[in-house]
Amino acid sequence: MALTYNVTTNISATPEAVWGLLTDVASWREWNPTIIEIDGTIALGEKVTLRPQVNPKRTFSPKVTVFDAPYKMVWSDGMPLGLFKGVRTYTISPQDDGSTTFAMEEVYSGLMSGMIVKSIPDMQPAFDEFASSLKTAAEKS
């Protein structure tokens, strides 16, 4: 059993502007109300530690497993032996009109996913707010 959340929005900004916001840990708390705390370096092979608003008692430390600037980034976290895994993919696609399509998807899967996903809060409102906040910040810059 897998659980997936996703959001897509069009942003009137360049892919580089969107990517710059996504990869600048120091700016996340300024533009992203879905995060209480975030620390680390967003780069290939690095881990980021974060505490989300939707689940403030939990801290997550995903590893950046794909870093293809300024188009795609993947964060992965989970339990060993494929018991449970969460994979978040950020995709940035330039459009012919100079805008950028931003997409974010998170997939929870693994042998224990059937039990674990029951304890995961509804992430869709947080995904929608993340995309909206990113859009607002990128269009201001």
Secondary structure elements and their pairing?
Blueprint: E1 3-11, H1 15-23, H2 25-31, E2 35-40, E3 48-52, E4 63-68, E5 72-78, E6 85-94, E7 100-109, H3 113-116, H4 124-140
Antiparallel strand pairs: 1-7, 2-3, 4-5, 5-6, 6-7
Helix pairs in contact: 1-4
Q: Rg from C-alpha positions?
A: 15 Å
Query: What is the CATH top level name?
Result: Alpha Beta
CATH topology name: Alpha-D-Glucose-1,6-Bisphosphate, Chain A, domain 4
Low-confidence segments, given as residue ranges, are: none
Nearest-integer average pLDDT: 95
Helix content: 25-40%
- The helix-and-strand class reads alpha+beta
Any idea how many domains?
A: 1
Strand content: 35-45%
CATH architecture tag: 2-Layer Sandwich
N-to-C CA distance: 41 Å
Morphology call = globular
Sheet with most strands: 5 strands, antiparallel
Instruction: Spell out the CATH superfamily.
Output: START domain
What sequence of helices (H) and strands (E) makes up the elements?
Answer: EHHEEEEEEHH
Number of beta-strand segments: 7
Number of helices: 4
Strand order of the largest sheet: 1-7-6-5-4
Would you kindly provide a written description of the structure presented here, covering whatever features stand out?
The chain is α+β, with helices and mostly antiparallel strands. The chain has one domain: 2-Layer Sandwich (Alpha-D-Glucose-1,6-Bisphosphate, Chain A, domain 4). 26% of the residues lie in helices and 38% in strands. It is built from four helices and seven strands. The chain has a five-stranded antiparallel beta sheet, with helices on one face. A two-stranded antiparallel ribbon has the order 2-3. A hairpin with a 3-residue loop joins β4 (63-68) and β5 (72-78). α1 crosses α4 (124-140). It is globular. 20% of the residues are buried.
